[in-house]
Write a structure and sequence with these properties.
single chain, mainly alpha, 2 helices, 78% helix
Length: 64
């Protein structure tokens, strides 16, 4: 279950950071930054899921 905690933390941080950016600015750069943060979190969470699905609970670069 550690991997799911990592996935949850990755996504929540990205969403929180994204909402902070959008609450301050709505310009094109801010929107692009939000898209980047959310896309990266989704990719990282997917990688955690893949590792879990394989049964290997050590995720490179993640503490948990």
């Amino acid at each position: 279950m550690i991997g799911y905690k990592n996935m949850y933390a990755l996504m929540c941080k990205a969403v929180s950071d994204s909402l902070d950016i959008l609450s301050k600015n709505n310009d094109t750069n801010s929107i692009n930054s939000v898209c980047f943060l959310l896309e990266q979190a989704m990719i990282q969470a997917e990688n955690v899921y893949i590792v879990i699905a394989k049964g290997d609970y050590e995720v490179e670069g993640q503490n948990g």
